[in-house]
Sequence to fold (676 residues):
Amino acid sequence: MRMLKRCRCLLIVGSVVLAAVLYVNLTDNNAVVLAGTKSEGSAKQGKVSSNIDDTEAVLKTKYKNHDKPEPDDRGLNQANDFAEDLSGLFHRPITNNKDLTDILYISISNSKGTTDKKISQKIHRETKPAKKTYTAETQSNVDKSKTSQNQMQPESGVMSGKKSVQPIDVVPQHINVNSVQSTASSLRKSKPNSLISKDNSRVSIKRVETRQEKTNSADAKFKDNPSTDPMKAAEHHLRSKRYEPTWDSIDSRPLPAWFDEAKFGIFIHWGVFSVPSYINEWFWWAWQGPTPNPAAVEFMKQNYPQGFTYPDFANMFTTEFFDPNQWAELFQDSGAKYIVLTSKHHEGFTNWPSNVSWNWNSMDVGPRRDLVGELANAIRNKTTIKFGLYHSLFEWFNPKYVNDKKANFKTTDFVSGKTMPELYEIVNQYKPDIVWSDGDFGPDVYWNSTEFLAWLYNDSPVKDSVVTNDRWGTGIRCHHGGYYSCSDKYNPGKLQNHKWENCMTIDRHSWGYRRDAKVTDYLTIEELLSTLASTISCGGNMLMNVGPTKDGIIAPIFQERLRQMGSWLKVNGEAVYSSKPWRSQNDSLTDGIWYTAKDKTVYAFVLSWPKTNQISLGFPLANDKSNVMMLGLEDNLKWSYLNIEKSDGVRITLPTLPPDKLPCKWAWVLKLTGFD
Fold:
């Protein structure tokens, strides 16, 4: 009998050790196996301890797709930080481009040294794209499809003997993987870092420490008392909270602080529409939409042969002069703190080699380059600028979108086969700091917006730093999402209770480049600075757009405006970056005065120089210790009270200087200290 008991113990120990080292490659589901339970000492003693004090989860990840890299340190750190939902066992799940299936085996022993119960808990988690994954068979089918061309409206023609190029809408054959119900909810009820077995014997779980926690002791200490610093508290909230796919939960995420501090960014509209460069970036729609623009129709009739189609423009999108390093240098000189590049506009052409836009992307046709990847690398290697991507949810003439729309958005073929795979691609591959969504024509439930945003905030490689806007479905703008963009060129002129952005363009009539634009069609630097001042005074950011040419050139007039902004910000950036709205946004006595504040300092933006060299400000309340300076000058300026009661503002005398001695040529900023 004693021998049988000893053998039984050895079998138990063997099974525990085997569970710790065995991982299973679930070929149908791109599986990730988490093998659990190693108990130091129990194997040596030939018996199972009643308390597993050093239980760790061992993660082994296998990527099936041939184009996926091996997991890096960040991926392993994420794995070590898996699933905070499990009450301290792990923190959050590892992120993969495609579906992963996670299996966690936990062996629990009772105090008698025999196995009381073995919990074999399968935790299945589908990472995005939701309900979809790629397989080797799918990739083969997609490769075959590259040789064929699915018809996309309008039909293609031939020009100069060249074979016409058609966008191919490939819908991969995905495998749906059924979710397995986990007991996470019951585990949440247990105390942190522990599990309770059926007979209430406690099993301690040693949490796997992340590399960040090991190397950042100050941050680790802060976690015990996050309320000591509001900024750190918000950052801690970003790292620790998991968001549900509901707007209430999504809207509760604090906006990463860097975005509000940045204030000024550059928008870049670039695509096949840069080839005709006529009317605006909606040229295809103007030409062949439901109500064609006569000017667009006549333009095509006069300049292109019969049978020429919009996809034929793609071969002319050459970008031969595109130098991403030069662009990066220009954007840095502009003073911008972030950029947003068009990854795909409503025409559907992707500026990266998308897996779901065969023959209608910048690698297969036209540039033969990864435009997104090249600029992302240049921005990150040459500048301190944040890199963002614009992405259109819908496509004008994609047959699957057209069919979904006809079905009143009850079908989701376009979303599941095109839009969502693209979004996961650009996030996982390029790790943008901003996901700027647009083309949100259709209900948010059709676009699966909250599911994507929950993944973006919880599990994506940019979950702690990424910023999003509000264009995620019909009726969502100005109500839900990250910051609000509401409408193009949105500038309310008064303080808003939610962070917002004024996306505007230097060309008054187009976001894309126009060959026939007149010089008067472009905003002057004075107009741009006026827009910047009014925007940031009311709590917004300004995203200023330029439209490069089909050759990859940023036109000289755009370059001039960008460098003018940069020279002005070198002098006056103190009043812009990291500033906050003051108690009054503009002045009550003098037009063209806008205010910002930082700590106890108030900044007054003077958009035009007064003829009398004196300016009256109604809102700043002075005292005997008040002081006035002009940014860029060293000497204090003279000021006086407007009345004897000292209650109605101040009159400031500006310096009498020749133009070449002034700190800047346009818009001057007064620095007010000691004012109420």
